[in-house]
Amino acid sequence: MSKASWKSGLRTEIASPALIKLSNYLQFASISQQKLQSILIDNQKALLKLSRKSQSTHRYTIKMQAEPSDAPILTTAPIKPSETPDGIEDSAALLQSFASIPSLAKAWAFPSTDGVRISIQHSQRNLPANAQRKFLTHFSLNEAVLEHGEADTSLPLDLRDALMVSPSPSGKHMLIVRPASAGNGNKDTSAILEIWDRSRVLQEIHVPCSLHGSMYNDGWFGSGAAWSPDETRLAYVAEMPVLSKAPEFGGAQKGPDGKKMEGAGPKGWRGIGEFQEDWGELNTGKRAPALFVLELSSGQVAEVQGMPENASVGQPQWSPDGQALVFVAWKHAASNFPDFPQRLGIVFCFNRPCALHAVAWPQPPERGSAPPAIRLTPPSLQSSFSPRFSPDGKVLVMLSQVAAVESGAHAATPTLLALPWEDVAPVIAIATSSSIFTSLPQPRRIVDIVWRPSDVESFPGLYCNVLPEQPFVGSSKTLVSTVQWRSNFAVVAIDVETGDVTRITPNNGSSWSLLAVQQDWMLVTESHPGQPFKLFACHVAESQRSQPHTWSWSRLVLPDTENLPDKISHIMGQIETRTLQINPTTGEQFPFEAVMIRRKDLGNNLPTVLTPHGGPHTAYPAQYFMPLSFLVASGYCVILVNYRGSTGFGESALQSLPGSIGTNDVADCMAALTAAIGHGWADSTKVAAVGGSHGGFLSSHLVGQHPDAFCAAVLRNPVCNISLMVHLSDIPDWCFIECYGSEKGREKAGSGPAAEDIEKMYQMSPISHVDKVKAPVLMMLGAVDRRVPYDDGKRYLERLKRRADGPETRLTVFPQDAHGLDKPQTEFEQWVTALWWLDKHVK
To answer: Best label site of 144, 154, 573, 598, fewest CB within 10 Å?
Structure first.
């Protein structure tokens, strides 16, 4: 071979993962025998490693570089499986366009001379990094902007490496928390706190691991930091420090003082130590949350003293005068399930008892000298959280999920309560004991539980999980919040004196959510399956503060922000929705809803995806959700089923499901499918069931109980066998309540699971119908899921594969994902794979 042909490179493709001898391809190269042997060994090792890892055929490319001295480089590229439908590359490109659309994660409104200043935190999937890219934009909002209808938005500011961003109420200061690695920190630093003003960094504080661990910014225990009214200090939530080190073995001997003797000696090691419980799903390995206060004048961080014993604390709020810190405490032992020895999971579990407490501030500097925290709510009120103060400082409002705590259901209908802070503050200032709640006023109920709305237009209950950071409009009389209202989100105004609730956003089939409030200004978003978001603003005139039914909204355009990628812009304009009111065919007669979504340009009788939500006590709102809009854009009619037991329809309908899962909810799914077929949207011969968690429970039930109605199933971390899940899950209480109902479930949880419980749970599970399944099943599992551990789904799939006449199956396990399967690359792969599966078996 000539030198020129050698420099052009020699490329050979081999469609086999077996070991390959390279000598035939190197015979023209003047490489020494020693070099050749090295190349052969390196490539054999690489190919052997790849062959062991691969479960499908790959194409391996061996490319010789230009110079003989360069070692060959082995690259791999997957061969498209022969069964992959044509056009899968187009589907991936379409999904990438959807994945590029940012979402509005959070917003703040700050006072200004002629209106308000708005800061919005956006979130965008960063697929190559498998992370969320966060960035900030800013704009001014005033009467002139409202009249013009377009805001002059700043360029985005990347928040890379920022673990937390928390501006002060005035907007003059900001806390940014970064990991230790971002500021030349060392292994003994847990976090770096930066305090900014509008011109520069004022302080950079390195917090040692001996003081606290990682910050909590999960939206439940902690959500940003709580700034004091004068902005001289802030409170935040972080992991407690390590209280005891693991035992050390071997190593140098210790002297009389207990310290290691200097000099040479054997190498030692540390053991593991005693197991430490955590709060389950998404909290694996995290120590209990504790409260800390940063004093800006000194730069000192101190742990708040006097906390309740054997409890986790969070959700801090400063009193209006800054002389007290209010917070929520969750006892590690659930009082409503006293026989469970372990700490139960807390994510999406609003049935965990909690109470409001407070400590006076400042505290004595000597550790252990501060008086214990005062409990603000009586023991008879087993749930109180999300505390917020009125602007005039007279009222402390809070949410309560007492219906969830008392029934055992993981979510129920919240209530809104209020304490007269003027009567509480003096008691905290002089208190020296934690047992004085008898001298405190009882919380007043502002919004009560709605058991059964009178009609579909009536207020169904205050379905919100947390109040806005600043929820009051204009005065201290009116509170606003986002709530779930049947199959939509809506923004409501609540009169804190009378309890009157007014829906202040249009009832137009879209979902509306509150972003920010400042004085008389409000910023909201409108969303539906064909529209990620649109911004609207409202400026309440002083004369209209007590008349929320007169408030009106002005469209607010953010240049570039709402532009959709060209590939999907036209498609999104074709997406339409319709919400159906459906009467049940079994059990108690609580009407439920199904949201149908399709592309209107594709006409009627489309291949259909029936999608029940998880929970079961949650709901699907008619709003933009990227994976489902992707399926609709790809030609499917998607049916979202808000079956009996969903939130947003009143407490009676919600409590009708526990004890009847696998029956009533399955019947409602089939009734929704029948209704969609009757309206001409769904093709009865081309239907798939797609769901995750309890939605996966229902999807696997559907293909087992109604095997001839479905062409395929896509199951994401599904509940397939409750009799197995009860032993493995972080929420075993769920298994008892949902199988037996509230009263009997709580009774059984105290002594079970007995043999009869295991049998009942098995019979109520999809595994009991596994031998009837005909539809091909695609299953996707998270290997670190603690809510529905992946063995649950894996065993179900193995039962299908053991059948001689079993359907086609496919399993993907994501090794680093938990229950939500929501890492960006995981989300992308699962929905591209899901569409491939649906196209193969349904279309």
So the answer is: 144
* Residue 769 DSSP class: G
131-142 and 115-126 strand pairing: antiparallel
Terminal-to-terminal C-alpha distance of the chain: 53
Residue 221: both structure tokens together: 């225990």
- ∠ CA 841-842-843, nearest 5°, is 110
Which of these three, 28, 54, 79, is where a domain ends?
79
Q: Looking at beta carbons, which pairs linking 398-403 to residues 24 or more positions away fall under 8 Å?
A: 398/356, 398/443, 399/462, 399/464, 399/465, 399/466, 399/467, 401/350, 401/351, 403/449, 403/651
Q: How many domains does the chain have?
A: 3
Tokens, residue 485: 């209202």
pLDDT at site 187: 82
> Residues 265, 252: contact at Cβ < 8 Å?
yes
Q: Which residues contact 672 (CB under 8 A, 6 or more apart)?
A: 580, 582, 592, 594, 610, 639, 641, 643
The verdict on 624 and 699 lying in the same domain is yes
The verdict on 642 and 757 lying in the same domain is no
Element (H, E) at 592: strand 592-599
17 vs 60: CA distance, rounded Å = 7
Contact in structure between 116 and 521 (CB atoms under 8 Å): yes
Which candidate in 617, 819, 839, 841 is catalytic?
A: 819
Range of the domain at 12: 3-79
Residue 50 belongs to some domain of the structure:
yes
Let me know if residue 710 belongs to a domain. Answer: yes
Q: Is 360 exposed, middle or buried (0-12, 13-18, 19+ CB in 10 A)?
A: buried
Task: Say how far apart CA 523 and CA 137 lie, in whole Å.
Answer: 15
Residue 829 in any domain: the answer is: yes
Q: Is 455 a catalytic residue?
A: no
Q: Is 776 left (phi over 0), alpha (psi -120 to 50) or beta?
A: beta
Q: What is the pLDDT of residue 267?
A: 83
What is the rounded CA–CA span in Å between residue 670 and residue 691? 14
Residues 629 and 738 in one domain: no
**Is 785 labeled as catalytic in the residue annotation?**
yes
The answer to whether residues 667 and 711 belong to one domain is yes
* Buried b / exposed e along 415-430 (16+ C-beta atoms within 10 A): bbbbbebeebbebbee
- 749 and 834 together in one domain: no
The neighbour count for residue 299, using CB atoms within 10 Å, is: 13
Tokens linked to 458: 């009536």
In the block, residue with structure tokens 């201290």: 476
Cβ distance 691 to 718 under 8 Å?
yes
Catalytic pick from 278, 785, 792, 817? 785
In whole angstroms, what is the distance from residue 396 CA to residue 392 CA? Answer: 10
| CB neighbour list of residue 669: distance below 8 Å, 6 or more residues apart | 610, 612, 641, 643, 689, 698, 702
Are 679 and 803 members of one domain?
A: yes
Task: Kindly give the parts of the chain with pLDDT less than 50.
Answer: 1-77, 82
CA–CA separation, 325 and 332 (whole Å)? 21
Ranges of beta strands (E only) in 693-737 are 712-716
Please give the biggest Cα pair distance in the chain: 98
Nearest 5°: CA angle at 578, between 572 and 582? 150
For the full predicted model, state whether its pTM sits above 0.85. yes
pLDDT of residue 57: 33
Phi, psi of 134 (to 5 degrees): -110, 140
Instruction: Assess if residue 602 is contained within a domain.
Output: yes
pLDDT at residue 51, as a whole number = 38
What CATH code is carried by the domain that includes residue 696?
Answer: 3.40.50.1820
Is residue 712 domain-shared with residue 726, that is, in the same domain? no
List pLDDT tens digits, range 552-577: 999 999 988 778 998 899 999 999 99
| Active-site annotation holds for 769 | no
Note the pLDDT tens digit of each residue in 300-341. 999 999 999 999 999 999 999 999 999 999 999 999 999 999
